[in-house]
Amino acid sequence: xxxxxxxxxxxxxxxxxxxxxxxxxxxxxxxxxxxxxxxxxxxxxxxxxxxxxxxxxxxxxxxxxxxxxxxxxxxxxxxxxxxxxxxxxxxxxxxxxxxxxxxxxxxxxxxxxxxxxxxxxxxxxxxxxxxxxxxxxxxxxxxxxxxxxxxxxxxxxxxxxxxxxxxxxxxxxxxxxxxxxxxxxxxxxxxxxxxxxxxxxxxxxxxxxxxxxxxxxxxxxxxxxxxxxxxxxxxxxxxxxxxxxxxxxxxxxxxxxxxxxxxxxxxxxxxxxxxxxxxxxxxxxxxxxxxxxxxxxxxxxxxxxxxxxxxxxxxxxxxxxxxxxxxxxxxxxxxxxxxxxxxxxxxxxxxxxxxxxxxxxxxxxxxxxxxxxxxxxxxxxxxxxxxxxxxxxxxxxxxxxxxxxxxxxxxxxxxxxxxxxxxxxxxxxxxxxxxxxxxxxxxxxxxxxxxxxxxxxxxxxxxxxxxxxxxxxxxxxxxxxxxxxxxxxxxxxxxxxxxxxxxxxxxxxxxxxxxxxxxxxxxxxxxxxxxxxxxxxxxxxxxxxxxxxxxxxxxxxxxxxxxxxxxxxxxxxxxxxxxxxxxxxxxxxxxxxxxxxxxxxxxxxxxxxxxxxxxxxxxxxxxxxxxxxxxxxxxxxxxxxxxxxxxxxxxxxxxxxxxxxxxxxxxxxxxxxxxxxxxxxxxxxxxxxxxxxxxxxxxxxxxxxxxxxxxxxxxxxxxxxxxxxxxxxxxxxxxxxxxxxxxxxxxxxxxxxxxxxxxxxxxxxxxxxxxxxxxxxxxxxxxxxxxxxxxxxxxxxxxxxxxxxxxxxxxxxxxxxxxxxxxxxxxxxxxxxxxxxxx
Length: 839
Hints:
By secondary structure, this protein is of the alpha+beta class. The chain has five domains: 3-129, no CATH class; 159-267, Thrombin, subunit H (Beta Barrel); 293-304 and 313-405 and 443-487, no CATH class; 504-603, Thrombin, subunit H, CATH 2.40.10.220; 634-836, no CATH class. The longest helix has 18 residues, at 249-266. The relative contact order is 0.10.
């Protein structure tokens, strides 16, 4: 790009998707209206140059910091790294083919050595010219805060149209105003702030600007009522709807024809549709990637019963944890009625419990044990025994249980556009069937279960001594097998799924041979191409290692296949080194594993259990998903790529009265959050985000880290008010305890489990009707929005675990209660660490 038009790079990037469209010249003139005509001509010529087809092969080996591999496009092989491949595919979508613009974008990625060298030179030059200039990071990590499901459905099309009107109040006071948009049954207008107008007030309106051109009745006004009043900086915006009790069919017919004949000229108002597309896309990034388990709870005559759970590829392994030896799910053990009632008795915003869990296998049968912190406190003599013994077992878990209320009508999610658009839209806007609503009618709460276990906290609990002669006393925390819990049916929302095939639940013994060593374990689930195995002992082994498996129990049921020394390769290893994700090695000589499991599925299809893909009641999975997205209790966040860096893109939550919300909105503008604490401390950048995004694949479970935050909102700047560190950054337990105590003394301590993983590709199929509608009136905006949403590369969750951490470090319940109070009024007086701890 020449220096003459280098300053217009942003405009050129914005116009790329429009280069082949008939409206290109019109859009160019709109977007670049403030630029001289000769410069506009240069911009057009540059875009035409970038859009010319290209035949050059690209070989980046030795030219970029990434690892290059062969990449095929239209039977031509290029050698690109991951960043270049992503850039190539995105630019081809923009231009529609391989062009010079694609070539130049791919050869100028942020990890290209030439580009990096040029940036270093420019930075050095700037530092030399401005040696005392400090980098302003006050707004670097800010992002818009979304509310999932928060968009309006239009009953009819609105047209952007400005015309002068005169409004008359019930006292016949005249108010001059100007319309912003119009529909047959509604108006949005702006007027001076000097007029005192209120919701519900009735007005009579004369369309003065239209009377000059159209034969409207100048004597009789049109009756409207004020729906709401919005205060703007220099004026006020009034939303009005027609008074249905005072009909005017002649005006209705005129307005209907007027809008239909002019909507392409003045453009339909698309604000709510853009919001809908944006929110739905972020939802689709989040829903397949959250690690929590939403369980939906019935309430009938004051009795609470868990009914349904919502599964995705990230939480299905956690749901499977609750399968017993015959693959019956017993997750209902966690959600006893006493626990639900206890959680509901707590203050709003604090309706949560931490539940400590392990299981024990005896004679091939699985026995589940669990206890909340409240239940353990009632039996102090057994508390340390339970925590010490349970944390030593492979099955140890700590769950956070959060309760939030819901209503079944949240299952209905119409499109943002009117039924009048076409029959397809009308069909998609149909309400859920009575049969479906009958299954949802008693649902009142969602219990969100999140596994917050990590190695550091587990090691902490393992320090409790265990006397084996006392273990029999733990039976009081066991769940009797002769009293099964309520049956929780698992449904999975159908989204674009990156798994190539269904996985079936199967628990059977397996021997894993690594070189000359043999490890024993059990399978958890299987497909024809892979397995998940839980070992009896941890195994330090790297990904891509080839191993062999022997199935002694399965061998007893087949003579046709020899199920020993079958080759598999390790695709992933859990952090605790107990769980292996394996893919079988299929060659012409060895197809035994694949053929055996194909035969097993074929002959046992009715017996094998998988997460429900065929729904008992059509649409129930989507209905539960819609309900959950409107009641998100944690804070979802999203990342996008900017050159070689990952930046804050957006966040979403349904809760605004908790510690994390107060932390993230410190000194931000309305509807914005500041993700500063997870990106950096006041001394240095955290490596967690960059490391996780580089090492994780979209099909992997999200990574999890524990973040300690000291929050003192009495300080003036974010850097002074917030100090954060990940748990593994502390050198010892004593240093962690010291950080917590100092945070409590100065302001507030907050502990957050940060979940993070890369996103897959967005599924625009469910938004096709809305995208097509936007494309009719604003094609360039639709393409720009789509390209922006494609750039979202990571998503995660922020889960508050402050109370569990404070109890772990044995702070008193009074300190925990005080720490819930909102700063800056909350201060704990200067006391020593030992005074804050239990004696």
